[in-house]
Amino acid sequence: MTLIVAVRCTDGVVIGTDSASMDYETGLKQPVIKIKRVDELPILYGGSGDVGLIQKIDECLAKLTEGPSLKALRQKIKKLILPELKDAIDEHVAYPQQGFNTPPPAILLFAGVFKGFPWILEIEKDGRDTMYDANLGNFAAIGSGKPWAQAIFRPHLTTERDLNLGKIFTRRVLEDAIDLAAGGLARPIHIHTITLDGTVAQVEDPEKTGLREACDIWRSLEREAVGKLLARNQVEDVTPDIPVPG
Hints:
The protein is 36% helix and 24% strand. It is an alpha+beta fold.
């Protein structure tokens, strides 16, 4: 299982991931690094799906050049990935066992900055591509943990955020999703950022500790707010009476 999330901010973009890689046949998992950089470009990405197919896509993306516009860059990324997705289907030898009876899939999530403009791009397993802008909450997630990530982040889709808040959002989404998944996802959590000037960085200690503590404070404040709401309801008895038929 995998969870990769990207959060677009006013001053850059954040991308984060869990570390679990699951073997189809044995069901065992091992920690892996899922976020990669495209050469020296201000572009980071991660993939969910078949490891071998993602390795081939990695090799293709090493040839990527930025291009004159974001639209051109989007088209270049697709042209490098789609042939590998098609070959995975054409060359697949079906085997009558779960996990091997269908062609290997791969979904890619990109986060980057183009001439001072932060962007998030998803390439689906069938080749469809989507830019996650303000209309989609400036947020995207891929992998088996996607439903949890979407549910956790839903209240914050329209919240304006800088990189500092974006990193806290990313940490909270990944932490809660890992806890909810009960074994499919795994720590450690890896978070990377790209600023508007194209600087790529990875969150390291002690900032990791700071983000973890911020998430703990956030949860504590939520519990406190719920407690106050319940106390207010008990005092004011705001529960409406149930009407009696007739």
